[in-house]
Amino acid sequence: MRKTLDQLAPGETGIITGVAGNGTIKRRMIDMGLVAGTKFRIQRYAPLGDPIEIKIKNFNLALRKAEAALVEVQIG
Q: Is the pLDDT of residue 13 over 80?
């Protein structure tokens, strides 16, 4: 089963396995450090559930739920 960042709960950790999508959005996410093999941790969700804050490569990154749904992950 495919898991994506938007399906995880705060506190969960894992490794990014890939970024779906195409064009400029995929390039922008890769430029922000969302590359395969990178460890991450879900920090928190905004009060209304959007955006999601993750800790990746020693910095915090906020992603919209639509963007987080494009990032495939492996839990653990």
A: yes
